[in-house]
Design brief:
single chain, alpha+beta, four-stranded mixed β-sheet, 1 helix, 4 strands
């Protein structure tokens, strides 16, 4: 499984992802994100762990 951790904060959700995301994992992520928004959280922070980037020169990537 590549979604390593989901951390619920007061007003945002942090999701840590590593590797390739399978369709079932993407579906689970979408469900988590939808629940977070319905629960009143306004922000979702996605952290891509061990992501080399398309140029291969970065060690990580944060998508907000």
């Amino acid at each position: 499984m590549t979604i390593q951790e989901t951390v619920q904060r007061d007003d945002w959700v942090e999701i840590n992802i590593s590797g390739i995301i399978e369709k079932s994992e993407l579906d689970a992520f979408q469900k988590t994100a939808k629940q977070a928004v319905q629960g009143g959280r306004k922000k979702i922070l996605i952290i891509l762990q061990d992501f080399g980037g398309w140029g291969g020169d970065s060690e990580g990537c944060v998508v907000a």
